[in-house]
Amino acid sequence: METLVFLGGIAFISGLIDAAVGGGGLVQIPGLFNLLPNIQPATLFGINKFSSVSGTAMATRQYLRRVRLPWALILPAAGFAFAFSFVGATAVSYIPVKVMKPLIFVLLIAMAIYTFIKKDFGSLHKPKEITRRERVNAALLGAAIGFYDGLFGPGTGSFLAFLFIRFFAFDFLHATASAKVVNMATNIAALSFFIPAGHIVWAWAIPMAICNMAGGLLGARLAIHGGVKMIRVLFLILVAVLIGKFGYDLFIVN
User: Fold this and answer.
1) Which of 65, 91, 121, 240 has its CA 20 to 30 A from that of 101?
2) Could you give the number of structural domains in the chain?
3) Pairwise CA distance, residues 69 & 57, whole Å
4) What is the DSSP string of 174-196?
5) Rounded to the nearest 10 degrees, what angle do helices 202-247 and 2-20 cross at?
6) Average pLDDT for the chain
7) For this UniProt entry, which segments traverse the membrane (predicted)?
8) Rounded to whole angstroms, how far apart are CA atoms 51 and 29?
């Protein structure tokens, strides 16, 4: 019961952070590995995905009630993200994580510097006209993010939000809402592998999902009412945390 209470608390915080700006896995995955050390990693990832997709679904529902999204862009991105998350998962054995980490570390630093220096980045919502080119770009964006999420994962929501702002001139609120839809597609794709393979423990997954949904509800409401400025600050904080984590893994642990 004590373990379940701690897992519920971690899932709630993870859902709150993920709904507001992304990056909930930074909290939930280490928590699962620390509190359930005797369960195999694949099962822990299955529990994490089930909990995460529940919170993301709740957050998405909140955003869709208040934010109008350009589905002509979102649906191609989500569809290709779903498909290419399988490709990424199958590529895990061919592309070692140690090769990915330095590249992601550099990309995160570049993303943080760009967002910090460009003060109006993500502050205005002036989406481009949706042409065939924009739909193709959305599909390519979804494919790249889906592949990354299936292969590795950390920071997927942050990368998605950044790319929606950079390529389609969204503000942070619309970018975060759009990222939730695409991220939900990649999570469902992962679950379609983990659940049939038996990599899940429902006694842990269901309570965590409920707590993650509660966190997702609160996080989405905070983001919506806090507005673009608050999300921008949270985004920069999260990216800084990601840089710290990757830097620690690269230069301290190794």
Assistant:
1) 121
2) 1
3) 15
4) HHHHHHHHHHHHHHHHHHHHHTT
5) 60
6) 86
7) 69-93, 99-117, 138-168, 188-218, 230-248
8) 11
